[in-house]
Specification:
With about 300 residues, the chain is mainly α. It has 14 helices and 2 strands; from the N terminus they run H-H-H-H-E-E-H-H-H-H-H-H-H-H-H-H.
Length: about 300
């Protein structure tokens, strides 16, 4: 029988460990560029459940790896994710004023500083991987390859340019699905793959490919629920602007589904994610995580 762990406790413990590691990595002093450091830390240490780092660490654990090896990869993912949020909120993108219940980075520090803070976080992510002491040279090389692809033109950035197009024309459903497979799901899949990698399980191994399928489906389901929450939830509870998708005339999953239909579609994707890893002993927590993300209210 599997040792069942409490999901909330694991999420909180993981978030605390990630927060501590991020604080240590980002702690720097130089009066000439202190504003840049402060802007980075403002967004990097703004809280959150740290879901992507949790996926990294849990897949490492699932396949017998050392969390000390996965922790730098988990932090690198969070650096990339944080940079993307800063840039996403900019006036040239979603033009949002709130993030996690606080003023968006550009509202706090100005457009130019926010832009540079995001650039610095992106760049630092790869330094974190390169200097990870518990990873082999082969693992580091593979991690850089995985993360750069997930965050780049055939991943998050490619999805973002499609997202901008979706503000001017209504995207067909298959194109919308591709958009979010790149913009959101690619980084979630990468998180799963990096966790496997930290445990010595490389791409091509059936365990890694099952983890990747989990991440892909989880990522798209996460975005479907984001679209639902943006349209239906309270701004104070959500911690960011709501209704912005509609204000920007964006093509979203609610372009094609009503709320009930979108939730059903997200549930189907969640079931696919769970099925992908169902055969692995110790995967209960990752299953519970998928269900919790489906049922989230913020």
């Amino acid at each position: 029988m599997e040792n069942i762990r409490d999901l909330k406790e694991v999420i909180d413990t993981n978030a605390e460990a990630i927060e501590k590691a991020l604080d240590a990595i980002s702690s720097a002093e130089d009066e000439d560029i202190q504003l840049l450091f402060d802007a980075q830390r403002y967004s990097l240490l703004s809280g959150g459940k740290r879901i992507r780092p949790l996926v990294v660490n849990e897949f490492c654990r699932l396949f017998g790896g050392d969390i000390e090896a996965s922790l730098p990869l988990a932090c690198a993912i969070e650096y990339i994710h944080t940079y993307s949020l800063i840039h996403d909120d900019l006036p040239c993108m979603d033009d949002d004023d709130l993030r996690r219940g606080k003023p968006a980075n550009h509202k706090q520090f100005g457009y130019a500083t926010a832009l540079l803070a995001g650039d610095a976080l992106l760049t630092k992510a790869f330094e974190i991987i390169a200097t990870a002491e518990k990873l082999t040279a082969e693992q580091k090389c593979e991690a850089v390859k995985l993360l750069s692809k997930a965050a780049g033109e055939k991943g998050m950035i490619g999805g973002q340019i499609m997202d901008l197009e979706g503000e001017t024309v209504q995207l067909e459903f298959e194109k919308l699905l591709k958009l979010h497979s790149l913009k959101t799901a690619a980084l979630m899949e990468c998180s799963a793959r990096l966790g496997c990698l930290a445990a010595g399980v490389f791409s091509g191994d059936e365990r890694c490919e099952a983890a990747a399928e989990y991440g892909r489906n989880l990522g798209v389901a996460f975005q479907v629920m984001d679209d639902v929450l943006d349209a239906c939830e309270d701004e104070e509870e959500l911690g960011k602007n709501v209704g912005s998708d509609n204000e920007h005339n964006k093509t979203t999953f609610l372009t094609y589904y009503d709320e009930a239909g979108a939730r059903e579609y997200a549930a189907d994707l969640t079931s696919k994610a769970i099925s992908a890893i169902a055969g692995f002993k110790g995967s209960v927590l990752l299953t519970d995580l998928a269900v919790a993300l489906l049922d989230r209210t913020h």
